[in-house]
Amino acid sequence: MRYGYKASAEQFGARRLADLSLHAESLGLDTVAVSDHFQPWRHNGGHAPAALTWLGAMAQGLQGAALGTSVLTPTMRYHPSIVAQAFATAAQLSRGPVFLGIGTGEAMNETPATGAPWPGAKERRLRLAESIELMRRLWTEERVDFEGEYYRTVRATIYERPEQAIPIYIAAAGPLAAKLVGRVGDGFICTSGKPMELYTGLLEKIAEGAEGAGRDAASIHKMIEIKVSYDTDLERAERACHWWGALALTSEEKMSTEDPLELERLADAHPERASSRFVVSTDPDEVVERIAPYVALGFTELVFHGPGEDQARFLELFTRDVLPRLRARFG
Predict the structure, then answer these.
(1) Tell me: the pLDDT tens digits for 161-171?
(2) Tell me: the pLDDT tens digits for 74-124?
(3) Where are the beta strands (DSSP E) in the chain?
(4) How far is the C-alpha of 217 from the C-alpha of 199, rounded, in Å?
(5) Active-site residue numbers?
(6) What is d(CA 1, CA 128) in angstroms, rounded to the nearest whole number?
(7) Strand blocks (E) in 182-276
(8) pTM score, whole prediction
(9) CA pair distance 158, 167, nearest whole angstrom
(10) Most exposed: 46, 73, 256, 264, by fewest CB within 10 Å?
């Protein structure tokens, strides 16, 4: 079991996010997973530091925690070659393991930065699969000629290749993306707060994809971002969720909306929904009980996302009250 910290680049600037991540490691968390946004969920008060730059700084600052993205989209804003080069460098700098968490993305991050139309779900999956193939070849081969449907390289060489393979974790919220995880992913990423039958179905599709590719599904790492608003003050814990009201929007609303002002408007129209994706509690035993079903499904890498502005308070309370109980129960 690994227990980590979700570094929310949408909510905090680069230096504060770095300080919080170092604090999380000092308090005993094993993983730092950063989001990669060109634009945040909220225009007012939002942030969006460049994840690739930030990862380089953290690779030097952390003393051994695993470091990676949850998640980055290597298909539109970034050419896969650039992502492969950046992560190879981060892996050489880091004192701990580096992982690349990727997904098919959201319009708010890709369309404004590129001016390109937002592709349909099928094209986004095809782009993602092709990017994985290209990145792995760049990490392992000397000179890469690649002629794909979406990407092309000519005698491309990454001169600072990683000494060990960088695991690629694929985010999936639907059955076809989950089958892709099974076919080619080293790991699976998803987020908490949805019906449990969704996770069961996704894991079944991962197993189906793995079987079809002649792979052992048990070898695929399973990471979940667990959204927890834990505090000794229940009203404070509830209030902390409001900034993240966009998480309670439907997938269609989030995926296709490209303007942070519009996302902010949609989220603020229903503030009562904001906490629906979070475990909100003042009882550490209750928090552990609500995390237990995810562990029972086979998730062994738990990354905790606290929603509040006072992240230091969340980290200190969580690692004092909840983390020891998690370690005692799950290892």
Answers:
(1) 999 999 999 99
(2) 999 999 999 999 999 999 999 999 999 999 999 999 999 999 999 999 999
(3) 2-7, 31-34, 66-69, 98-102, 144-147, 152-156, 168-171, 187-191, 221-230, 279-281, 301-305
(4) 15
(5) 37, 106
(6) 28
(7) 187-191, 221-230
(8) 0.95
(9) 17
(10) 256
